[in-house]
Every structure is written in structure tokens, then in C-alpha cells.
Amino acid sequence: MALAGVRVIELAGLAPAPFCGMILADFGAKVIRVDRTKVGVSLDRQARGKRSVAINLKSAAGVALLRKLCLQSDVVLEPYRRGVMEKLGLGPNELLKENPRLIYARLTGYGQTGSYAAAAGHDINYLAMSGLLSRLGRSGEEPYAPLNLLADFAGGGLTCAMGILLALLERTRSGKGQVIDASMVEGAAYTGSFVWKSQGTGLWGRPRGQNLLDSGAPFYDTYRTSDGRHMAVGALEPQFYAQLLHGLELAEADLPAQMSVSDWPELRRVFTERFASKTQAEWSEVFDGTDACVTPVLSFDDVSSHPHNRDRGSFLRDRDGQESPRPAPLLCRTPARPCLAPDPAVGEHTVQVLQEYGFTAAEIEQMLAAGVVERPGVASKL
Ligand SMILES: C[C@H](CCC[C@@H](C)[C@H]1CC[C@H]2[C@@H]3[C@H](O)C[C@@H]4C[C@H](O)CC[C@]4(C)[C@H]3C[C@H](O)[C@]12C)C(=O)SCCNC(=O)CCNC(=O)[C@H](O)C(C)(C)COP(=O)(O)OP(=O)(O)OC[C@H]1O[C@@H](n2cnc3c(N)ncnc32)[C@H](O)[C@@H]1OP(=O)(O)O
Fold first, then answer.
1. Are 53 and 367 in contact (CB under 8 A)?
2. Given the CA of residue 184, which atom of ligand 1 is nearest to it?
3. If you count Cβ atoms within 10 Å of the first and of the last residue's Cβ in the chain, which end, N or C, has fewer?
4. What InterPro entries does the entry give (predicted)?
5. Does residue 306 carry a catalytic annotation?
6. Neighbours of 124 (CB within 10 A)
7. Known catalytic membership, residue 349
8. pTM score, two decimals?
9. Could you give the domains of the chain?
10. 80 CA distance to ligand 1 middle (Å)
């Protein structure tokens, strides 16, 4: 796999850092998640392919242990509020001094500097601060955050993974590690570069929810079908719009012009009525195989069995029977090989990992006995 041989230490976090760690693990990195001791269960639902070591970082021995793990690792990924790692004596100055090849990734909401740097926050706050949230939502309604996808995952976990890959690539030339300051505000804003860079094109000239791509246009929206499901319509270009009308059995001559914004409410009314006359399956039959840019809005229950997704194997089922998306993108020679085994329990691999990193049985036993590290069951004999 592409990241075979890369060793990653991921300090346990809420949502974005676990995603970043899972991406790296999916593509072959050896990812060790550092959990707290005495927590029992992990909230990490993106633990695929990771191992868990439980370390009490509020003890000097725990801090010393983590430093040793970082000495033999390529990447450390930390998801805490600014200053937390420094307070523990695990800041980048210390760790990079000991291991100059280390890539030290800091995934936070507001970044390492600026007046908000140390403030608590979540996806919706970062999205708000990126400017993007002000553009999301339907006309006449309040701004709407689309799950916690944009800041936590696109602007956060994924962007941070890109930073790590860039730093790994650069290290092949310089031999040096570096610090990555991944701010979810900036990652989300960067993801939205198109919206900034297309200002002045007329695409965004109207209020939120009244533009071409923000649910303002009737030919770029979703419609309810007779069985209470939905179809997604993305018929922007005239040649595709013509196929939409053909599928809906509407004559272009009987309708207002596609780009006549003042007529959009009337067009929407006509489309709404038409879509409500057939089931989702019936509309799919009408539009499949055409260029009308009309697709069913698939539920989680339906998505993997849709013929297109099934043909590509876009979703996988792990050994617990749980379905999730297969890692993307596909690399033809060195594709991801996601682990299908159950997620690790907190501390499940404490002993195994410490042995791998060169600790003796007696040292491990001593750390277990002192509560510096933990494993499930807390049996203290190796
Ligand atoms: C919208 C998303 C978040 C979605 C997550 C939700 C799915 C879950 C959030 C809450 C969960 C529920 C809740 O836990 C209650 C139930 C629990 C039950 O078990 C399950 C059901 C629950 C209902 C549960 C259900 C769900 O799981 C939840 C609803 C996001 O936006 S995520 C993005 C968040 N932002 C960031 O990641 C940016 C960077 N980080 C931060 O800004 C802060 O970390 C953050 C997130 C604001 C948290 O701040 P906090 O004050 O808690 O921590 P920090 O200041 O960072 O300091 C960390 C301290 O921990 C110490 N520490 C770390 N590791 C160890 C260790 N191994 N040993 C000992 N100590 C450790 C560290 O030293 C710090 O200590 P100090 O405070 O003393 O410095």
C-alpha cells in the first residue's frame, strides 16, 4: 500500500483527527491511537485499521513514554486546544529536537495563532468563521450547516491528511520533518475557494438560496417523488436541461426560459408537480442512461445495492456487518486495503505496541502496575 512503513501516533480526539488517522491507516500506515487510561470505551468511530495504546499523559512516565514512541515514528497527530501539548512537555520544539524527521500535525479549529486560537469550538463555529456558512441554506431561512462535513472532515481531517502527505513527500528530499498547523476554519475556506474565486461571475449575486448552485435554481435542486423519496436534479447546461424536460415530458416552448430568474418559482412549481407523479424507481428508470443529470437521492439502506455502486464495490462491509464507504480514491497499483476487523478496544494493543517499540517485558509490567499504561482486563502479568 502507498503508505506502507509510515508510523503514525494519533492522540485520541473527537471527529476530524480520527478521520485523518483512518485515511492514513486505510492507505497502509501503521496508526497507533493513544487513548486515555480509565476511560473504558472509545468514542472513535473512525478507528478502522488502528491499534490502541492507553497512556496516562498526566504522569511524567506517560509523557516520557510518548516521547519515546515519537522518536521512532514518522508522524504525530494532535487534536487538542492550543497549548495543551506544550503544557505536557510534548510540544513540537521538544519532539522535533529529539526526532528531526518527525512530522508534527496539529489539527485544530482556529489554528495555532490568532485571538480565537485557544477557544473551544465545533464544526459549525469553524464553518461560520470560514465565511461559507453564510452562503449555505435555503432562501428565507437561517444559515444551515450540512452535518459536520465541511469543517470537521473536508477542511479538517482530509486537509490535514493532505498536509501530512505533502510533508512526507518533502521529507524524501530534505530529510527533515516539519510542523503542520491545520486550521479547520482555513481548511473549510480553502475547500470553498471556488465560491470566492467565482464572485463577480454572477453566480452568487443574489441572496442566500436564490442562486444557481445554492438551491435557488429549479434545475439544480431535489424533488419529492410520489413514494416520499427524492430525485436530485443537476441539469445546468442547455443540452442537459433539454433532456430533463424530455424525461419530464415537458415541452420547452410551453415553459419560461431556463435562465429567466424571475420565472424560477413557476418552473419549480411545474417540476414539483411532475416529480410528485411517479415513484423514485419510476423516475430512475426514466432518467437512467440519459444525460439529464437526474439521479435518485439514495438512502444509507439503498446506497450499496444501487447497480452503479455495486458494480464498483464502492461500499464495504466489515466483519461486524457494518457498512461504510470504501477508501477513495482508487490507486491502480497500490490501492487502499481497509481493515475489516472490529475497531480496537481502548488499550487493546498496549503490550504489543510497546514490545514492538523495544520495551522489555519488565518495563511494560512496571508501567502497567503503576497505571502509566493500561490494557483491557488489567491483568498485570505479560
Ligand atoms: C461536531 C464535532 C463533534 C462531534 C462529536 C460528537 C459525536 C460527540 C461530542 C460529545 C459526545 C457525547 C458526550 O461525550 C457525552 C456522552 C458520552 C457517552 O460515552 C457516549 C454518548 C455521549 C452523549 C457522547 C456522544 C458523542 O460521542 C458526542 C456527542 C466536532 O466539531 S469535533 C471538532 C472539535 N474541535 C477540535 O477538535 C478542535 C481542536 N480541539 C479543541 O479545541 C478542544 O480539544 C475541544 C474539542 C474544544 C475539547 O476541549 P477540552 O477542553 O475538552 O480539551 P483540550 O483543551 O483540548 O485538552 C485536552 C485535555 O486532555 C488531556 N489529555 C489528552 N490526552 C490525555 C491522556 N492520554 N491522558 C491524560 N490526559 C490527556 C490534555 O492534557 C488536556 O488536559 P488539560 O485540560 O488539563 O490541559
1. no
2. 38
3. C
4. CoA-transferase_III, CoA-Trfase_fam_III, CoA-Trfase_III_dom3_sf, CoA-Trfase_III_dom_1_sf
5. no
6. 16
7. no
8. 0.96
9. 7-192+319-374 (3.40.50.10540), 220-297 (3.30.1540.10)
10. 8
